[in-house]
Predict the 3D structure of the following.
Amino acid sequence: MNLVYGLTFLLCYYNIVFAQKGHVTEHEHYEKMYNTASAKKFFEKLMKKDITHEFVVRITIPKSTEECYYEECDEDAQLLTSFQDETKPSVTSNGLLQASLRFPNGSLVEMLKEPGKKADFDHTCTLPGTYEFCIHNTVPGSSNEKTIRLEIIVIHHQDITDFHYKYQENVENDTMYNIYDNLYQRARDVALMKLAIIKEKVYGDKDWNIVQYNNKMITVVSFFTICLVLSVTFGQIYLVKRMFKVDDRPRNGWF
């Protein structure tokens, strides 16, 4: 009786543990479904106002000075900083600028290898805090002020799942989000079907190649086996004939 109770207890424990392991929360489902490169690209314009902080400005930097701008960046967020020199050409200046990006602790993240008219820095913030982006109009030979277009963009990738969770759980859902989501689901289903077809074709080609290779090897091995059997057979016949060789030549006095 105790054995029956023990087995029942183990069976219930097994079902509970494995049911918990196989359970996926809604948040985890959205994480797996939407936190992918394809989903990020598809919902990029729609998510821009929710997960992206963008700062764009046109400024003038006097000669022999620098302008620095500061931006908060959370851990795992993407920080994009860039500038474009829009100064009119002048014979008194080579129009080159230097740019640098620094961590919150002041250490250098990235700097232009050589001064230029534009720069694009793409950094994933491993250290949360305030980052410093500076443009230096102090390059030797530059003797006039510069007009530049400055962009600082922070993309909070860690908020993507919460973005979808918010709209999916909202009963009065946003119509534009519904359109995007339906299109994405259809595109995803088609992509998965194409992937499955390609996978089956690859496996089919692979199996066919294996069958052809095995058939070839069987043919080769069978040929050598037949040759070996024939060689052994003829060798045995030759040896037996030598052992029982009869001299048929006539002898004197005998017929």
About this structure: The radius of gyration is 39 Å. DSSP finds six helices and eight strands in the chain.
